[in-house]
């Protein structure tokens, strides 16, 4: 269930934020002090979002004109109790966007326990079943003997679930801009339909097809880009905006369309501009997710050395550097997803068929 349509930039007034500490977890007090409170202090300082504690079993009220978000944990998704499953499912059914802090026990030597490898397939299926997002645990805590999450993981995911858009949008009401958007909708209608088919056929998302990924068609002097929270499996060219200008210093984007452009727009505006300056402007940029590629064993040489915070113009500069250093047309953002640049939807389809393979 989705609420809030991002026709305008969300503010703290549009967000209801909660957290629930797993009452039976031996790491509950630690998670509260070391993960939840630091993350929510940063959210309040940066965006004015205030988090409210709830008891296990409480389901907060959901308003259709607001984003309701909750963090739960810590817990082992491979060993969740039936009570936890029922509670998390109830949250999802009411429309609460729920993130889960993971805590997998390690061996005495600090290694993953036998059976942890099953998390690669079991946990995504569990998330689909319950309608939640279990944060990927890339932190090894040898003091507590668990593989878990950091407060930064919670902070970044909370932004993506609530505010989403970090840039400052300005809607253009110029009739000429509306005409250009209308023309591009017609010109790219078949392209978008084919991209939707590829997303469906190859399952090019990690969590949900409307939360993951973004698509941009760069043109001379303007950009045709998917709107934020667009379902990539059902999208049409009506789900795209025209971006007419951007200002990196002011973090500003001027656009025409019924909803805000993708939250990934800043980095791809910067990437396409840098590629134009240093060679040739790409005609298509696709950011997609895939459950096997992002953290699988293949193409590890194409993974960035560090994580890269999305939604910022600076990320586009880092993306440009990755493409140049790796001398390739795609790469994998560590712990996130893929970025591909090229000239046509046909090229992207051939790439997906070759690299992703049949689901």
How would you describe the overall organization of this protein?
With 359 residues, the chain is α/β, with parallel strands linked by helices. It folds into 2 domains: 12-161, Rossmann fold (3-Layer(aba) Sandwich); 168-355, L-fuculose-1-phosphate Aldolase, CATH 3.40.225.10. The protein contains 9 helices and 15 strands. The protein has helices at residues 28-47, 82-94, 119-130, 151-161, 175-187, 189-202, 265-277, 313-326, 345-355, and strands spanning 15-21, 51-53, 67-75, 97-105, 133-134, 139-141, 146-148, 168-171, 214-219, 222-226, 240-247, 252-256, 284-288, 330-332, 338-342. The strands form 2 sheets. An 8-stranded mixed sheet has the order 8-12-11-10-9-13-15-14, with helices on both faces. Strand 4 (97-105), helix 3 (119-130) and strand 5 (133-134) form a beta-alpha-beta unit.
Features:
seven-stranded mixed sheet; 359 residues; eight-stranded mixed sheet; 9 helices; L-fuculose-1-phosphate Aldolase; globular; 2 domains; alpha/beta; Rossmann fold; 21% strand
Describe how the helices and strands are arranged.
Elements: E1 15-21, H1 28-47, E2 51-53, E3 67-75, H2 82-94, E4 97-105, H3 119-130, E5 133-134, E6 139-141, E7 146-148, H4 151-161, E8 168-171, H5 175-187, H6 189-202, E9 214-219, E10 222-226, E11 240-247, E12 252-256, H7 265-277, E13 284-288, H8 313-326, E14 330-332, E15 338-342, H9 345-355
Parallel strand pairs: 1-2, 1-3, 3-4, 4-5, 8-12
Antiparallel strand pairs: 4-7, 6-7, 9-10, 9-13, 10-11, 11-12, 13-15, 14-15
Helix pairs in contact: 1-4, 6-9, 7-8
InterPro entries: Aldolase_II/adducin_N_sf
